[in-house]
């Protein structure tokens, strides 16, 4: 009895502790309990990587000057071993890293949280002077003809730019234009800027990042803006679309280069991006309070963005584990492999439920069929499992290729299913088949799939995702509940059926 | 259709969770499991304690010993080959007759020596053991089961399962193989479970696949005529397994040999719950009686005292 009391006390304390911490976050720090009130807050991690050359290193990064409604909530720098300073230039801030000696490839980090406060037009920007570049004679002739032709096809500055970009995107170039763009050493962008300059149109580039949740190695992109009648008009040179894309975070307007590296080579600027679920108010107060509240300083938000993404998935596993415990202890559902259903459920999150089920069933049944032949060969267990793994990978590749050829691209997600788990499932099922018969295979296989589907359904509820990620302390409460369930010695739901004879009145 | 939890509690039915937490978890030390999970170890320790067990002809523990099987089987015409760590009766080969190199199974099928060797090799590679672990094959004498029971069995050997709690036998049943169970004494494969009165060893009530049944489906004999012979010996043997294994909650499987009487076939540290249906009685009720008994009375009762006590306590005629 004493162990039961102990467990109850420990579990009770854990549940209260978890709930208490969560409530404290809710009441004192204003974390929202439901995901409904959130607005997209993007965390961008800029990675500057380069290899050392000879001599001292001097790196400068122009810091973003948000425009068009973008707001920077906070930013951090990571610069171990470097002298670091942020300098205020005439128009923009600049981060500077310097070091006298550097021997190894190095990565510097600049992390910032941004959100879009609403749809606003671009702010004002000084109109750059038009600098017409000097060209070789044959090029100048072609350039003049191109400008003349485009002027004929358009009515104003905006349509001039639009026609130019459309022709470029559709690869519908006349001879002169093809000649200009074919010139080696010039990027399309610089040719476009040259044409605009020759047409006496004030224009400049906008550098920025397209924000997409979960992107790892996003590069910086460039848009073009032209000035006409007191307004700026934005174009995407890659698509010829006019207007500022909603998810484009503006880093810098103007033609200066964003990253300058002296004393290093092969420098690169890449971004990892994660969409967060907190409302701005909370982020704002969090930022102010993080210096005072230990709890927040040790929160998941203090981790690098890539790790946050991984944890998002990891924190869902306890929920799946709870589902399994409930199903096995309270219901008495039989599954093959205790926690195998959770892994299947995690895979379903990537593949979506229906496709996932279809893939799972087809791979397992095809695998079982092949496994029967292997069993006929009477191999050693380890060799059999290894053969199973290879067969599963082969089936997965085959499924990917065939479905791709037939245009069912959703089946490409087959690669998210855990290979080794599939191989073990096939092995277990086939042993079960031989030892207990087909019935047991369907009972346990069906039980596993049912558990996986239920776990998946719970894990994909927005509220559950929100709570597990933003209130990880609820995991402590979950632990308490699981401990309590571990001491449940009452009847299982299936036993009420199994022992139904005892429910009849006569003795 | 369904029973309410309240009804099950009133009838003292033991559920799986309670069995695991309150009985197996509390009475069976994990470190003692190998003793019962490995039939070879069980047999050795049973012999040390002077218990009657089927005679061991030999053990094949490595693939290269397969060559010597011929010598091993010399002169043996009726024997059983089984995995030491098998469960649920898997991988048991029963040879009832032999003509030179022709071995005849209980079903009448004829095997040659090569096939017998192949079966043994499968046992060694772990085909029949839990989790596919490598195993050893035991060869032992076939039991000539007591003729009084032959009316209640199709092909296989009927065995008696006694649940022993803290050394006291608390419930018993006999499992009779049927055609549906393919001659195996496994309840979930369709064998009949017949509850036995602890006082007399007489059949009380029988089930097959969860349904009540009054006559053996193949032989047609009525179950209420069945009385297990040597009943006191059966209970004494089962009860003595407590001293032998130190496990507080076990299921002892006992067979009756025509010539040698009751023998311990194997022990189980996680005995199933179906015995309650065969007896139409809840186990928990009886386990609680023993718990009370131990709390209130002297605990160092001998095997005979415990058997007598249990017979009085759990006789179906009294209550």
Secondary-structure blueprint:
The complex is a heterodimer of chains A (507) and B (319).
Chain A: H1 2-27, E1 41-52, E2 57-62, E3 70-78, E4 83-88, E5 93-99, E6 106-116, H2 137-153, H3 157-169, H4 175-182, H5 188-198, E7 203-210, E8 221-228, E9 231-235, E10 248-253, E11 259-262, E12 264-276, H6 280-289, H7 294-297, H8 305-314, H9 317-331, H10 340-351, H11 353-376, H12 381-405, H13 419-436, H14 438-459, H15 462-470, H16 474-485, H17 493-498
Antiparallel strand pairs in A: 1-6, 1-12, 2-5, 2-11, 3-6, 4-5, 7-8, 7-10, 8-9
Helix pairs in contact in A: 1-16, 2-4, 9-10, 9-14, 9-16, 10-11, 10-14, 11-12, 11-13, 12-13, 13-14
Chain B: H1 5-10, H2 16-27, H3 33-37, H4 39-48, E1 56-60, H5 69-72, E2 79-83, E3 93-99, E4 102-105, E5 110-112, H6 113-124, E6 137-141, E7 159-165, E8 168-176, E9 192-196, E10 203-208, E11 211-213, H7 231-245, E12 249-257, E13 261-268, H8 275-279, H9 283-296, H10 303-314
Task: Report low-confidence residues of chain A grouped into runs of 5 or more.
Answer: none
Q: Structural class from helices and strands of chain A?
A: alpha+beta
Relative strand content of chain B: 15-25%
> H/E element string of chain B?
HHHHEHEEEEHEEEEEEHEEHHH
Strand arrangement across the biggest beta sheet of chain B? 11-10-9-8-7-12-13
Order of helices and strands of chain A: HEEEEEEHHHHEEEEEEHHHHHHHHHHHH
Query: Radius of gyration of chain A, rounded?
Result: 31 Å
Q: Tell me the greatest interface.
A: A-B, 23 and 29 residues
Helix content of chain A: 40-55%
């Amino acid at each position: 009895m004493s162990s039961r009391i102990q467990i109850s006390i420990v579990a009770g304390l854990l549940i209260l502790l978890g709930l208490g911490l969560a409530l404290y976050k809710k009441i004192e720090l204003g974390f929202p309990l439901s995901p409904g009130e959130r607005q997209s807050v993007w965390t961008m991690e800029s990675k500057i990587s380069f290899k050392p050359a000879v001599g001292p290193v001097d790196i400068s990064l122009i810091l973003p000057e948000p425009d068009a409604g973008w707001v920077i909530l906070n930013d951090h720098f990571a610069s171990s071993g470097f002298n670091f300073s942020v300098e205020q230039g005439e128009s923009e801030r600049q981060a500077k890293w310097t070091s006298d000696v550097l021997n190894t490839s190095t990565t510097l980090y600049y992390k910032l949280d941004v959100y879009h406060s609403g749809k606003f037009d671009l702010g004002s920007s000084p109109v750059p002077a038009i600098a017409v570049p000097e060209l070789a004679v044959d090029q100048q002739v072609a350039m003049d003809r191109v400008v003349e032709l485009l002027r004929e096809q358009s009515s104003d500055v905006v349509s001039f730019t639009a026609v130019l970009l459309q022709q470029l995107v559709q690869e519908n170039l006349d001879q002169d234009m093809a000649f200009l763009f074919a010139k080696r050493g010039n990027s399309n962008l610089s040719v476009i800027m040259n044409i605009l300059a020759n047409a006496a149109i004030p224009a400049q580039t906008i550098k920025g990042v397209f924000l997409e949740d979960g992107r790892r190695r996003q590069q910086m992109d460039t848009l073009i803006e032209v000035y006409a009648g007191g307004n700026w008009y934005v174009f995407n040179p890659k698509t010829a679309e006019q207007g500022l894309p909603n998810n484009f975070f503006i880093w810098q307007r103007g033609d200066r280069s964003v990253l300058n590296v002296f004393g290093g080579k092969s420098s690169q600027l890449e971004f990892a991006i994660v969409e967060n679920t907190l409302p701005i108010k909370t982020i704002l107060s969090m930022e102010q309070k993080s210096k005072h509240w230990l709890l927040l300083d040790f929160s998941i938000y203090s981790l690098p963005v890539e790790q946050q993404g991984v944890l998002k998935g990891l924190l869902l596993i306890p929920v799946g584990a709870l589902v399994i415990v409930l199903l096995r202890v309270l219901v008495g559902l039989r599954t093959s492999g205790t926690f195998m259903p959770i892994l299947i459920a995690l895979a379903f999150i990537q593949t979506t439920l229906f496709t996932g089920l279809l893939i799972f069933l087809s791979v397992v049944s095809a695998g079982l069929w092949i496994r029967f032949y292997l069993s006929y060969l009477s191999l050693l267990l380890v060799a059999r499992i290894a053969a199973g793994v290879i067969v599963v990978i082969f089936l997965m590749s085959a499924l990917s290729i065939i479905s791709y050829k037939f245009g069912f691209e959703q089946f490409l997600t087959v690669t998210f299913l855990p290979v080794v788990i599939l191989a073990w499932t096939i092995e277990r099922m086939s042993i079960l088949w031989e030892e207990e018969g087909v019935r047991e295979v369907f009972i346990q296989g069906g039980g596993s799939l049912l558990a996986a589907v239920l776990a998946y359904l719970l894990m994909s509820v927005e509220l559950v995702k929100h709570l597990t990620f933003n209130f990880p302390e609820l995991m402590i409460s979950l632990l308490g509940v699981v401990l309590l369930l571990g001491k449940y010695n009452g009847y299982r739901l299936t036993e009420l059926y199994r022992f139904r004879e005892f429910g009849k009145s006569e003795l | 259709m369904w029973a309410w939890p309240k009804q099950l509690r009133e009838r003292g039915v033991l559920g799986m969770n309670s069995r695991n937490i309150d009985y197996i978890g509390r009475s069976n030390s994990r470190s003692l499991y190998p003793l019962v999970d490995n039939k070879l170890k069980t047999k050795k320790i049973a012999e040390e304690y002077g218990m009657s067990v089927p005679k061991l002809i030999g053990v094949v523990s490595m693939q290269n010993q397969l060559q010597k099987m011929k010598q091993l089987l010399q002169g043996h015409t009726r024997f059983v080959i089984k995995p030491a760590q098998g469960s649920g009766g898997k991988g048991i080969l029963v040879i009832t007759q032999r003509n030179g190199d022709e071995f005849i199974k209980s079903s009448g099928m004829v095997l040659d020596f090569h096939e017998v060797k192949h079966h043994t090799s499968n046992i060694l590679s772990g085909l029949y053991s839990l989790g596919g672990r490598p195993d050893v094959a035991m060869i032992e004498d076939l039991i000539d089961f007591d003729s009084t029971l032959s009316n209640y069995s199709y092909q296989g050997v009927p065995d008696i399962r006694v649940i022993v709690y803290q050394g006291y036998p608390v419930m018993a049943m006999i499992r009779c193989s049927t055609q549906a169970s393919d001659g195996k004494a496994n309840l979930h494969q369709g064998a009949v479970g017949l509850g036995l009165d602890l006082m007399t060893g007489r059949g009380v009530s029988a089930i097959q696949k969860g349904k009540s049944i009054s006559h053996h489906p193949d032989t047609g004999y009525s179950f209420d005529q069945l009385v297990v012979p040597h009943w006191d010996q059966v209970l004494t043997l089962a009860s003595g397994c407590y001293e032998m294994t130190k496990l507080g909650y076990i299921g002892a499987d006992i067979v009756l040999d025509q010539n040698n009487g009751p023998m311990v076939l194997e022990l189980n540290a996680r005995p199933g719950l179906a015995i309650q249906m065969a007896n139409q009685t809840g186990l928990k009720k009886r386990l609680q009686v023993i718990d009370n008994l131990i709390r209130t009375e002297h605990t160092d009762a001998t095997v005979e005292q415990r058997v007598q006590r249990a017979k009085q306590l759990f006789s179906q005629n009294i209550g």
